[in-house]
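Researcher: I'd like a candidate sequence for this fold, 115 residues long. If you have to choose between options at a position, lean toward the conservative one.
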């Protein structure tokens, strides 16, 4: 989608520090990390948010949650100690980039509730 920063990252029009990539998904380090490990996992195809997912996206969502994120967690040495997966959704959810993304945060203790 034109003017979408994460589409541009997926298309390599904007550089990023890529930690994982396959045909459907790319994961890269957040520009302003909020934890020692802060990776963003996105579908390459533009989907606005979790709220825009449909039954047609089941395979993609399952791939991200069941395969990509656990693999990244292992590679980043987060799987034993724990980590947090966040998908800010919509304005009140704190979503600033309107292209579906999962934050994978780890390397420090997380607080609850979030702000
Ligand atoms: P949101 O606030 O939408 O949940 O998360 C958007 C995230 O994207 C933020 O953590 C922000 O730091 C990150 N971000 C925004 N622009 C860029 C960029 O150009 N490159 C990278 N690597 N991260 C970005
Ligand atoms: Zn996009």
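Model: Candidate sequence:
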């Amino acid at each position: 989608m034109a003017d979408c920063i994460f589409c541009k990252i997926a298309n390599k029009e904007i550089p990023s520090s890529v930690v994982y990539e396959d045909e459907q998904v790319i994961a890269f380090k957040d520009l302003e990390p909020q934890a020692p490990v802060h990776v963003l996992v996105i579908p390459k195809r533009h989907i606005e948010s979790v709220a825009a997912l449909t039954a047609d996206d089941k395979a993609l969502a399952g791939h991200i949650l069941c395969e990509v994120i656990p693999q990244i967690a292992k590679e980043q040495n987060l799987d034993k100690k724990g980590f947090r997966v966040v998908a800010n959704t919509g304005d009140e959810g704190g979503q600033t980039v309107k292209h579906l993304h999962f934050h994978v945060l780890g390397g420090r203790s997380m607080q609850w509730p979030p702000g």
